[in-house]
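Dear support,

Our group has been running a series of protein-ligand predictions, and this particular one with NAP is the one our PI (initials K.S.) wants archived with full inputs and outputs. We had some confusion internally about which version of the output was final, so please treat the block below as the authoritative record. The input we submitted was:
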Amino acid sequence: MPGNLLKVSEENPVKILLTGVNGQVGHALQANLDADRRLDVLHDVIALSRAELDLSDADAIRRVVRESKPDLVVNPAAYTAVDKAESEPELAYAINATAPQVLAEEAARIGAALIHFSTDYVYDGNKQGKYVESDAVNPISVYGRSKLAGEEAIRAVGLPHLILRTSWVYGAYGKNFLKTILRLAAERDSLRIVADQWGAPTSSESIADAVTKLIKAWNIENAAQTGVYHFTNAGETTWHGFATAIVAEYEALQGEKNWPALKAKQTDIQPIGTADYPTPAVRPENSRLDNSKLKSTFDIALPDWRAALRQVMRQLP
Ligand SMILES: NC(=O)c1ccc[n+]([C@@H]2O[C@H](COP(=O)([O-])OP(=O)(O)OC[C@H]3O[C@@H](n4cnc5c(N)ncnc54)[C@H](OP(=O)(O)O)[C@@H]3O)[C@@H](O)[C@H]2O)c1
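Confirmed final output from the archive:
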């Protein structure tokens, strides 16, 4: 296994096993790695959907990794239904904790490396200011605890790995907050959106771009690079600020795109408190993540969330 994943010959292309290709991040990553050949080097991508690899089946994971023998496993697949996880903890743990452990064990067996995704929900949100990677974790939901268990399992295996903690993921592809706001704003005269949870909306496209750069920049033989990185778009807002920006961007592009008018305008989006919108899972009030470790280690930074939003909106049909 070469130090840098990309120092390979034509006869020996980098083989990347990618999970969850029907998810937001998996889909964007496949588009980057596969179609665009963005790595500028010969590589094969084995891209698998849930139907092709069910991560709740540990034997299937072992079989797929043993047969495909990748140099790098990239695992964006996850149980992401935050509220449903409260009543399905076993399934959430199987996919978010056991599956990453088995992927890590199998990757370690064949000398491969692992890129895994985690979440701002490993924190309780009580810190004033942005979280850094060395801050104490204290998840307050089943989802957050299951994702943290996945991180810990990977660390315990001890292979070269990057765990990328991202937040508030949305994109042109998949079901997400952006799509929900556009649908509701088309149907209703006004919306009530939570204004006391802070974080960074992060587009799956920004994540995929940055991961592509990361694969080029990462020297897997440098043990100091292994570990956890915060991985979000820059800047911060609330869900209310995000919803308002979505409607504002829609209005800005409406003429050019020939989109129908929304019923709810920017000014029709009312701020409410978390207490006014009870959900089965508790969410952290403060999800703001400091990304400077990513910048100082790899010289990679994701763009500002507002610029990323504009780019995603432009891609919408
Ligand atoms: N979404 C967010 O707001 C958010 C926030 C912070 C961190 N993250 C993390 O970022 C990563 C990417 O999230 P995302 O937004 O791309 O999630 P997503 O859109 O919900 O996609 C998750 C993917 O995982 C797949 N999956 C679920 N159960 C599976 C199983 N048993 N076997 C195989 N695949 C399975 C899903 O398959 P189907 O398509 O068949 O359902 C889906 O394609 C995850 O690690 C997530 O925890 C996400």
